[in-house]
Amino acid sequence: MIEIKNLHANVEGKEILQGINLKVNAGEIHAIMGPNGSGKSTLANVLAGHEGYEVTEGSVSFNGKDLLDMAPEDRAREGLFLAFQYPVEIPGISNATFLQTALNEIRKYNGQPELSPKEFLDLIKEKSEILNMDSSLLSRAVNQGFSGGEKKRNEILQMLTINPKLAILDETDSGLDIDALKIVSQGVNAFRSDDNAVIVVTHYQRLLDYIVPDFVHVLFHGKIIKSGNKDLALELEEKGYDWLTKGSLETQNV
Amino acid sequence: MPEENKNNEMKVVEDLTQSEYKWGFVTDIEEEEFPIGLNEEIIRKISAKKEEPEWMTEWRLKAFRYWKTMEEPHWGKVKFPKIDYQALRYFAAPKQKPQYESLDEVDPELLETFEKLGIPLEEQKVLAGVAVDAVFDSVSVATTFQETLAEKGIIFCPISEAIKNYPDLVKKYMGSVVPYTDNYYAALNSAVFSDGSFAYIPKGVRCPMELSTYFRINAINTGQFERTLIIADDDSYVSYLEGCTAPMRDENQLHAAVVELIALENAEIKYSTVQNWYPGDKDGKGGIYNLVTKRGACRGNNSKISWTQVETGSAVTWKYPGCILQGDNSVGEFYSVAVTNNHQQADTGTKMIHIGKNTKSTIISKGISAGKSDNSYRGLVKVTKNATGARNFSQCDSMLMGNQCGAHTFPYLEIDNDTAIVEHEATTSKVSEDQIFYLNQRGIATEDAVNMIVNGFCKEVFKELPMEFAVEAQKLLAISLEGSVG
Predict the structure, then answer these.
(1) ipTM of the complex
(2) How do beta strands A215-220 and B331-340 pair?
(3) Global pTM?
(4) In the prediction, which pLDDT does B30 show?
(5) Are B453 and B436 in contact (CB under 8 A)?
(6) Closest Cα of chain A to B210: distance in Å?
(7) At the N or C end, where does chain B have fewer CB atoms within 10 A?
(8) Does A112 lie at the interface with B, CB-CB under 8 angstroms?
(9) What does pLDDT average to over chain A?
(10) What is the predicted pLDDT for the residue at B140?
């Protein structure tokens, strides 16, 4: 699905990613954990093509194509989806209009016919139900006046509707109460299949009780310093990051 | 932001702001022209040409004499070269003055022009139910739907015909909202106005269709001086659409129109404008000067006047469609989208004058500036001493694209009655990179993303436009801002 090799990236001249290597296959869920400032969100944004980040070294192959060579909208059309940590507001544009435009742009790119308004409404209704979302959120302006939980749910609704090949969830659990967390996880679990993959970026193990990962990676100072299975997340929960990060620093100092 | 990204951004802004005016063309139709310059002789000639009664000629001359005593105003936040009024030609009309039974008899070249402008008269007849009084330069050449309107007693005709056929109405109302003493350009217009539209909606009649006029400036060096007068008698309703494009040319062209609206007891007038005159090229050369006086009087109790404008064109736009709220409980509304790009300048807004009791006004202004343009909102809310219970709400939002343009807000409040409630809100924003990235990440390309964001920004105004105009307005906006990402 995606293969990241020796990825280095800068923000305002400062190197944040310092050689990431990661391979994600179809059907897998990978969790990326790590303390604040370790580069988790940077990785998500670099993969999505945010202009504020400069890739200085490395390569990313996405379904056999050079991801870093593509404009952000083409990455999306090729099947990469980012659920934003801070979804932005677009005043005056209804959520439904926005999502219909997005979906049809992606379908057009992939040579599929655009959905009629009726087909679109049926689809979005079906997906909203998975997330217990009030249909009034569809007619409101994109994310405007949405609560934190509504915004995150809206991101997952978009994911379900667009049905990408690879979904990257950037701290989707932050700011969610336990009920909202369960609903969001329900959405992600409804999404997962043998044909797609999910990268879950998170600070806390809590989310991984509901979205069970196949692999867990710990990111620190822009590098993956440890990888394991779901038990690694539990270990982190118990011990914190210190036992890993100290080791890492010591190794670096040697 | 890394330097490289900044440069990219600048490049995108440049690319986007350099879309060329898509409606520029000149039609070869024989025109009858007067000599260049302005004097009493010319005014008498204009009046004679139009077979006007003596009182009209006199009114024009009075206006001209008054105009000569006035000085060109310079208080607007707009700059343009001094206009030599003696170098303009004050009358041009297509030579074959037509009296057609059907469109088949109309000069095919003229029809072609209308086609290019997107005014399919035939189609409009059938599909949209819009009566179009198309002004080609100075003389009206095609009027449709007269019969349907006549059945209801509605008068909709060129003002030159109204002067001859309905002198009492014209005498009573022309100049009653915008007197020739009002301002420099209104005085000039009163002296030399060529033609324009006249509408009268009788008591108790709801006009069954949108009334519409398309303007087009098409004679070199011809100042265009339209004069529009709309009267809605007691308990009547009318919606009027004005839209225009102009051919591309290098010389600046002056457009100084006057529009007067009068709403009597319980009457409502909705006046919508989509303006897309040639804005000049991307270096600021050429383009129309749009110096227009538009004003409505809510004379009757419970009357209402609503102005909606989408201004994307002209090199210089300087106008304040306003409402004089004389009747008790009368309502004035102003909804505006003004887009400036490249070197365009706009100083526009409204005047709401509260005189009657419990009068209400609403002002929603959306200014979008791109390129090196300057966009100002200037609005007056005046509550006079006896206007008990007056209410005003104003919201002025500006959006900037790139970092070479300007947005300014000049609200003036003159409140002489302490029961008045006046609210003013103003915001300035940029199309943010985060918004664009968010839409990009959902598969929407940057240009479409900008259009979407801008359309969202203007939604409150667009929803006031009649359906077919709203679609046109969105297209115009997309064309005007092609490539303007900030």
Answers:
(1) 0.94
(2) unpaired
(3) 0.80
(4) 57
(5) yes
(6) 26
(7) N
(8) no
(9) 90
(10) 43
Residues 6+ apart with CB under 8 A from B425: B394, B395, B396
Band the pLDDT of A251: cuts 50, 70, 90: very low
Cα–Cα separations (whole angstroms), residue B169 to B58, B200, B262, B350: 17, 9, 11, 27
3-state secondary structure of A159: helix
The number of helices, as runs of H, and strands, as runs of E, in chain A is 9, 12
Q: Calculate ∠ Cα A202-A206-A212, nearest 5°.
A: 80
The values of phi and psi at residue A37, to 5°, are 80, 10
B3 touches chain A (CB under 8 A): no
Distance from CA of A231 to the nearest CA of B (A): 33
Paired residues of A114 in beta bridges: none
φ, ψ for residue B45, nearest 5 deg? -65, -45
Select the more confidently predicted residue: A74 or B252: A74
Cβ(A219)–Cβ(A32) under 8 Å? yes
Please tell me the predicted confidence (pLDDT) of residue B90: 80
- Using CA atoms, how far apart are residues B223 and B216, in angstroms rounded to an integer? 12
Chain B segment 387-446 residues within 8 A of A by beta carbon are: 432-435, 437-446
Coil, helix or strand at residue B130? coil
Look at A168 and B467; give whichever has higher pLDDT. A168
pLDDT at B9: 44
Q: Please tell me what DSSP assigns to residue B218.
A: -
d(CA B26, CA B155): 32
Burial A208-227 (b: 16+ CB within 10 A, else e): bebbebebbbbbbbbbbbbe
Write out residues in chain B with pLDDT < 50, as ranges.
Answer: 1-18, 96-100, 120, 122-132, 135-143, 215-222, 247-248, 250, 486
Would you kindly state where each structural domain of chain B is located, as residue ranges? 437-486
Q: Is A168 exposed, middle or buried (0-12, 13-18, 19+ CB in 10 A)?
A: buried
Q: Which amino acid is at B294?
A: K
